[in-house]
Amino acid sequence: MKALIIGAGIGGMSAAAALKQNGITCEIYEAVREIKPVGAAISVWSNGVKCMAHLGMGHIMDKLGGAMNSMSYQDGFSGTTMTDFSLMPLVEAVGTRPCPVSRADLQASMLDWWGRDQIHFDKRVERVEQTAQGVTAWFADGSVAEGDFMIAADGTHSVVRADVLGHSVERRYAGYVNWNGLVEIDTAIAPVDQWTTFVAEGKRVSVMPIADNRFYFFFDVPLPKGLPEDRTTLKADLRRYFRDWTPHVQTLIEQLDPETTNRIEIHDIDPFEQLVNGRIALLGDAGHSTTPDIGQGGCAAMEDAVVLGLSFSQHHDIETALLHYQNERLERVRDLVLKARKRCDLTHGKQMEQTLAWYKSLKTETGQHIIEGLRETIVAGPLG
């Protein structure tokens, strides 16, 4: 049995690992000549870490994951602590620590683990077809690939998605711009082992520790879509958006490198009614494109892969296995997309009175409510 996997990102590589565990041959096709990650880092919460271990790549998380032992919210203007608490109760409750990691390092490690020479790069899908016996993919360079089924892990701009849904979809602008990158850890910005977030005005500035003495940082600002900003104005833009914010934030702005800082207009897509059509299945962002507001985008792709593998371990018929995968994932990924959307709106001042009420509630937060919310999301995954 042979699977064609479209996309060699986190979802595609996870899917390949899961299918390989079930004795299925995988041919992986990636559209670009060289993968350049969108985003500097990724929050891999405990459910994602469990999935990586299940897929045989737990050592990657051990190597790349930062020591994030506590969590804190700070007032964006004054820098005073609104709440801070240990994440150890969460780790004890779910059995695995969260691992914020460099996205580039994670993707590189997954490619190396599989074997880069076993991946077909610069293969952009132009069209696909399926019959009762298998699937065929035609690429822009004129080449053709055939397999028994296809996993479309080709991202939020998926080419294959329309072949599953029967129509194209529009991405929805979530209403804010995100800047993200990596800087060397500096206690003038935040403690070395803490996820620290500064909030005010419906804006966010956040830092997380990752491996090699680095902070992953991001800035969020509610803005109209399509503003003409680029790397040449990046620091000036951030200074303007965060004028009068705490010196911790000003230090971060001064230390970031505009050449390695990403500016992204955040989008999501309304949840789909299906993930599978015959012998073609959507996985990762191709099947459930979400905002990053609950840190579950990458984790959801890893979960997809685990469930895909479990489906093939239980069903030897391809279409039955893929339908089982769909049935197991539809409700879960819908919940994650809508939960992230709700958090996005609350965090970014869509209804400012609700955002201000949230700020007020943080000042009396002991950590119990936040940890319980994280725990509920984590344990709802396929590995508990």
Task: Describe this structure in a few short sentences.
The chain is α/β, with parallel strands linked by helices and 384 residues long. It has helices spanning 10-21, 46-54, 58-64, 88-94, 103-114, 161-165, 234-241, 247-255, 297-314, 318-347, 352-362, 368-379; strands at residues 2-6, 25-29, 41-44, 70-75, 81-86, 99-102, 119-120, 125-130, 135-139, 144-147, 149-152, 172-184, 194-200, 203-210, 214-222, 262-268, 276-277, 280-282. The longest helix is centred in the C-terminal third of the chain and has 30 residues, at 318-347.
Q: What can you see in these coordinates?
A:
- The protein is an alpha/beta fold.
- The protein has 12 helices and 18 strands.
- The protein has helices at residues 10-21, 46-54, 58-64, 88-94, 103-114, 161-165, 234-241, 247-255, 297-314, 318-347, 352-362, 368-379, and strands at residues 2-6, 25-29, 41-44, 70-75, 81-86, 99-102, 119-120, 125-130, 135-139, 144-147, 149-152, 172-184, 194-200, 203-210, 214-222, 262-268, 276-277, 280-282.
- The strands form 4 sheets. The protein has a 7-stranded mixed beta sheet, sandwiched between helices.
- α1 links the parallel β1 and β2.
- The longest helix is centred in the last third of the chain and has 30 residues, at 318-347.
- The mean pLDDT is 97.
Relevant terms:
alpha/beta, seven-stranded mixed β-sheet, 12 helices, six-stranded mixed β-sheet, 18 strands, 384 residues
Profile the largest sheet: 7 strands, mixed
Strand content: 25-35%
Nearest-integer average pLDDT: 97
Based on CA atoms alone, the radius of gyration comes out at: 21 Å
Distance between the termini: 30 Å
How many distinct helices? 12
Question: Which regions contain 5 or more consecutive residues with pLDDT less than 50?
Answer: none
